[in-house]
Design brief:
Blueprint: H1 7-14, H2 18-49, H3 56-76, H4 83-88, H5 93-97
Helix pairs in contact: 2-3
């Protein structure tokens, strides 16, 4: 005698719709972008930490832009509390003060 799972359990696993697959792809892309944004923010903060006085202003704005992009990506993924990230990444207050600031060029 062969045993098989109940039809209700079998159908739940095998009946993936196109929307399920699309949702999986979207979540995978969001996770990839989150990782990329986090690495970009870490690199910008490292460049700022090693900056001389001449480069500090430009690197400060670049770090703020990278951290802002990372925070936006985190919020897109449903993570709205950034306090632990600010602490873990040791984000300076000068960077946090500039989040979202857009400077005119020219």
């Amino acid at each position: 005698m062969a045993l098989r799972p109940p039809i209700s359990l079998f159908q739940a696993k095998s009946a993936r719709t196109g929307f399920d697959r699309l949702e999986t792809e979207i979540l995978a892309e969001a996770a990839s972008n989150l990782g990329h944004s986090g690495r970009q923010a870490e690199q910008a903060l490292a460049r700022l930490a090693n900056a001389g006085e001449d480069d500090r202003e430009a690197l400060l704005q670049a770090a703020a832009d990278a951290v802002w992009a990372y925070f936006i990506q985190r919020e897109f993924c449903g993570m709205h509390d950034h306090a632990s990230i600010v602490h873990e990444m040791n984000i300076p207050q000068a960077v946090l003060n500039r989040l979202g600031v857009v400077k005119k060029k020219g």
